[in-house]
Each structure stands twice: as structure tokens, then as C-alpha cells.
Write a structure and sequence with these properties.
The protein is an alpha/beta fold and 489 residues long. It is 33% helix and 23% strand. A seven-stranded mixed beta sheet has the order 16-17-15-14-20-21-22, sandwiched between helices. A five-stranded mixed beta sheet has the order 3-2-1-5-13, sandwiched between helices. Helix 10 crosses helix 11 and helix 11 packs across helix 12. The longest helix has 23 residues.
Length: 489
């Protein structure tokens, strides 16, 4: 007898993955395919929407190719804030995916900016007026289609990656957006969980052309017209990747938060059933089932990007090569790297910040710069944790590719002064989405959750004393101040 499973799709910034997740949380099979990223101009980050879909199909095919039965349902974890527009009749993309890291709309955001507007945006949406979020990107795409003034005969659809994937999976039958993803657009009212007319007016995005907001375990429709999946498989759960990781880690109280180390980093802690605003970080909808669960979150724009950049600069392999080079020295010897390649995200929200390397002396080596690159990731995450005001946080769950670096994880624990627990499964976002799908199908959620299972020796305790930690954080603050100097200052 075949084992029932959910097909969990994880569409990330650089890879599309597919996992077959059984009812007990076991991964039966997996597939993946790379997704290209283009940087056509400084500050611009684009992807080919068709290439995103083709990579996801390739991952599905690789996963299902070793199984003898189809899935009971499909769940999706997706990169958030990235935006795509497409033709409602054919499903053809009408332009590139404008990536979440993209800062081309920074001037537009600055043009909108005023104390009154920033306050109104924060109160309504829980977010900052920043080009990372979706609404400015939507306006940009619609402007180029001549569609920003209103509805264009229902022919143009615009949404985040989850909307795009669901639309493609269902043969254009479904035009919806999961509520947590919608909360990252700058257009969703956090209190009503409906599109905000004042925010739509502010950004010039007609409310009528936006997808319908639905719960995280809603009826998203069923597969239709695909070569890779049979017709009629229900789409049973959708979560943004960071939200899926929080769900998969089992974080339900402020005592446990999570950090995802990917191209960028997301740090999130649960915030209960009522929205409230904290300065410097986002209030976001973590997920919506019978009732909403909110979270406080800070987003680091460049973490994996910073380490990959340093690896290319130093002529070593990304990942293990950079890690090995960093381990050749005891510390960064005063060298700091601030990877503000497209400005800084939380808690600074400063898109005018520039990348800098400080503290370089004649004795600085390649190892010191490699170490500084790893430390830059840990410092940025620590900045967000400080801004979250997470006094109750006792342990930070960690997931993502960079958690393979023991040096980075130990550095993170040292700079936080808290334990860091690495997930037992590297694919926690896909697993979290699958578990959300379980709730739709009526399957029992396994205990312990996959993200709560520790690998041997993968819990890191801080070893720096308070004085050492304070000195390291002060040195980082000085480097940040240089990064944020106005041009010509």
C-alpha cells in the first residue's frame, strides 16, 4: 500500500524544491532545481517568471519520479514580497519578477514619505515604507503595463509568488493570495485582514485587480492542465517561507523565535492574536487558520548574499570554502564588513546606506575578511533581536543553508548571549507548509514537530563573556555608522 503524502513546494530566491512529506513528517522523496537571479542595474534584482515556474516543475518531476503514487494535496512555501504580473487568460508573465531585495522603487518611497504617511502605513499594515515590500513593485509593474489607473478588463493579474504558483497549478482557476503573504504587501489592513482602500490609493494599486485574500489552509483550488501532476489534486496550504519556518519550528510563544539564514535573513517571534506595532521591525501575520496569529519580524537584506560575495572576492568556494578560510583565524582582528549592497533592512530601513569594510590594517588577511563576512550575518541578526525587544526569548531556532557553518552558529550564540538551536531538517520551510496542509486534510500534526528535533551537538551555548560581547557589538555599531553616512558627509 502506498504511503499517503503531501507534495510540499518551496519556491525560494535561488532554488525551487519539492518534498513528499508523509503523515508522520517523514520526507519520502525530494527534488530541486536552481532559479537564476539577474542584477540588470545597481539595486535591481529580477527573475524570469517562466524560469521560476519551469524550475518548480523540474523539482516536482524529480521528486515524484521515485514514487509510485500521487500526492493527497499540494502545499506551498514561497519567497515573499517579490511580485509578478501575468495575463489572466493565458497565464503568460507580463514582465520579470521584481525580487524582494530589489530597491529600484526607493525614490518612489522617498517621494511618498512624510511623518504622517509613515505613521499611517505603520498603523494600518505593521510595515515600514520601504521598497522591499510588494506595493511599490506592483505599482512599478502596472505603470509599465499602463494599468495603474484601474482594472484593465480583468486581463491583468498581479500578485506575490504564491498567487502566481497557485494560478499556474490550477490552470488560472484560482486568483488568490494567502493572508500572511498579503500582510507583506503594504496593502493589507492588519486589523481587518482585508485590502486597505487608503493604502491602495496611496500606492496607486487598484483594489479591484488584487487577488482574493484567503486563510493559510483555505481551499486554494485543484490542479488542472499540468503535465507533471494529475488533475484534481487540492492545494491545501500556503505560507510565506519565513512564516512556514516559524510554524515548522513549533514556535508558539515569545520564548522561542526563529532565524532563517538564506539569501537574506528573517528573524521572527510570535506576537499573539492581536496586532501591535514596534518601532524598527515589522508586525506581520504569521498565519491565519481559525484565528490569526501575528508575529514580530525583522528582515536582513544581505546575509547569504554577503557570504557568497566574500567567497567570490576571496576566490574560495561559497559555503564550506569561506567557512574554512574564516576558521584559520581566531577572530576578525578588528575588521568589519557591512554588506549594505542595496541598503539596510531592519531595524535601520536605510536604503541610502552603502557597503563598507572597516578596520583594515597592513596585518589584515583573507581569513580576517572571511571571518568578518560571517560575523556580519550574526551581527545583523543580533540587531534585529535587539529591536524585537525579545526579553522573553530564551532560544533562537535556526534554519537555512548557512546553519551548516558551526562557526557562524557559535558566533550567533555569542553575539546574542542566548542559545541557538539548529533545525534537525534543513527544509523546515517546506515542512512547515506541509504541516499547514495537514490541518486542511484533517491529518494529525506529528509530535515533536520536525523543527523541534535537535541534531546531535547542534545546540550552541554562548561562550563570550559580557565584556567581550559588548566590545564586539560596539565595533559593529561604529562600522554601521560609517555605512550610513550620507554621501559627501
Amino acid at each position: 500500500m502506498s504511503t499517503p503524502y503531501i507534495l510540499a513546494l518551496d519556491e525560494g530566491t535561488t532554488n525551487a524544491k519539492a518534498l513528499a512529506v508523509a503523515r508522520d513528517g517523514t520526507v519520502l522523496a525530494a527534488g530541486s532545481a536552481p532559479v537564476p537571479v539577474a542584477y540588470p542595474r545597481p539595486g535591481w534584482v529580477e527573475q524570469d517568471a517562466d524560469a521560476v515556474w519551469k524550475a518548480q516543475v523540474e523539482a516536482i518531476r524529480a521528486c515524484l519520479g521515485v514514487l509510485d503514487a500521487g500526492p493527497e494535496g499540494v502545499a506551498i512555501s514561497n519567497q515573499r514580497e517579490s511580485v509578478v504580473a501575468w495575463d489572466a487568460r493565458t497565464g503568460a508573465a507580463l514582465g520579470p519578477v521584481i525580487g524582494w531585495q530589489d530597491s529600484r522603487t526607493a525614490e518612489f518611497c522617498d517621494w511618498l514619505r512624510s511623518p504622517e504617511r509613515e505613521f499611517a502605513v505603520s498603523v494600518a499594515t505593521g510595515l515600514s515604507l520601504d521598497p522591499m515590500f510588494s506595493a511599490p513593485k506592483m505599482r512599478y509593474l502596472l505603470d509599465r503595463l499602463g494599468a495603474s489607473a484601474g482594472v484593465v478588463d480583468g486581463q491583468v493579474r498581479v500578485g506575490t509568488i504564491d498567487s502566481w504558483l497557485v494560478s499556474r497549478l490550477t490552470g488560472q482557476d484560482s486568483y488568490v493570495i494567502e493572508a500572511g503573504n498579503a500582510s507583506r504587501t503594504l496593502l493589507l489592513d492588519l486589523s481587518t485582514l482585508e485590502w486597505s482602500q487608503p493604502m491602495c490609493d496611496l500606492f496607486g494599486v487598484a483594489r479591484e485587480i488584487l487577488p482574493q485574500v484567503v486563510a493559510s489552509n483555505a481551499d486554494f483550488g485543484s490542479t488542472r492542465g499540468l503535465d507533471v501532476l494529475p488533475d484534481g489534486v487540492p492545494v491545501v496550504g500556503v505560507l510565506g517561507d519565513s512564516h512556514a519556518a516559524l510554524f515548522g519550528h513549533g514556535c508558539r510563544t515569545p520564548a522561542e523565535g526563529k532565524a532563517t539564514y538564506g539569501t537574506g535573513s528573517s528573524v521572527m517571534v510570535p506576537a499573539g492574536a492581536q496586532p501591535s506595532v514596534r518601532r524598527g521591525v515589522s508586525t506581520t501575520l504569521a498565519w491565519l487558520t481559525e484565528e490569526p496569529v501575528y508575529g514580530y519580524e525583522g528582515n536582513v537584506v544581505a546575509s547569504g548574499t554577503a557570504m557568497d560575495w566574500a567567497a567570490r572576492l576571496l576566490g574560495v568556494e561559497a559555503g564550506k570554502g569561506l567557512d574554512a578560510l574564516a576558521a584559520t583565524v581566531e577572530d576578525a582582528a578588528g575588521v568589519s564588513l557591512v554588506p549594505a549592497f542595496t541598503g539596510l533592512g531592519a531595524p535601520w530601513w536605510d536604503r541610502q546606506a552603502v557597503g563598507v569594510i572597516t578596520g583594515v590594517t597592513a596585518g589584515s588577511s583573507r581569513g580576517h575578511l572571511a571571518r568578518a563576512a560571517l560575523e556580519s550575518v550574526a551581527h545583523q541578526v543580533a540587531d534585529v533581536v535587539d529591536a524585537l525587544g525579545a526579553q522573553d526569548l530564551t532560544v533562537l531556532h535556526a534554519d537555512g543553508g548557512a546553519t551548516a557553518s558551526c562557526l557562524l552558529m557559535q558566533t550567533q550564540a555569542d553575539l546574542l548571549g542566548r542559545d541557538v538551536m539548529v533545525s534537525a531538517d534543513a527544509e523546515i520551510s517546506a515542512l512547515g507548509a506541509a504541516l499547514m496542509g495537514f490541518t486542511r486534510l484533517g491529518w494529525e500534526v506529528p509530535t515533536p514537530l520536525p523543527g523541534q528535533q535537535e541534531q546531535g551537538g547542534r545546540r550552541y551555548h554562548p561562550v563570550l563573556d559580557e565584556h567581550q560581547r559588548s566590545c564586539a557589538r560596539t565595533r559593529w555599531s561604529h562600522a554601521l555608522a560609517r555605512s550610513r553616512l550620507a554621501p559627501g558627509a
